[in-house]
Amino acid sequence: MKRLKLQNHFFALVALVLACTFASCGDDIYYTIDNTDEALCNKLWIEDHYVTSDGQEATYQLRFNTDGTGQELTSWAIGTGTNIIDRQISWRWTDDSKECIQLIYNDGSAQYLENVWVRDHYLSAEVDGLSLTFVDANHRY
After folding, report:
1. Is 91 buried (19+), middle (13-18) or exposed (0-12) by CB count in 10 A?
2. Residue 77, CA distances (Å) to 42, 46, 52, 71, 140 in order
């Protein structure tokens, strides 16, 4: 009888340990890492595997300044030279979630970087449906 009682206690203990183990498998700590101006600005962001709307393989560079100005530069090889489009921009987060950036060009046109994530030395965004990953120029290779 004592042996049976001891076995019951042992199985109850094993069941309790397993229940606690399986209940703690998920990450119950919910947190977000918010995008910030400090993480985004005053860096040169480079995407080396960009394809232009004309199908040209190019390098796409963005620079964001804390005063809402910046620069967009696209360059690609053409023959033995390089074609470069260098444009000054204004930029702003579209809302407080800081997950979308509006680039405003001098002619008044705009482009959106959506689903923006700024992490350490990487900036990812969707531009016209393309997923792009930029690297901080100071931390390449």
Report:
1. buried
2. 27, 16, 12, 20, 21
Taking the domains of the chain in order of start, what are their residue ranges? 37-139
One-character DSSP codes across 53-76: TTS-EEEEEEEE-TTSEEEEEEEE
Residue 4, amino acid: L
Q: Tally Cβ neighbours within 10 Å of residue 63.
A: 19
Average pLDDT on 109-126 reads 96
Q: Do the beta carbons of residue 133 and residue 47 sit within 8 Å? A: yes
The architecture that CATH gives domain 37-139 is Beta Barrel (2.40)
Q: What is the model's pTM?
A: 0.75
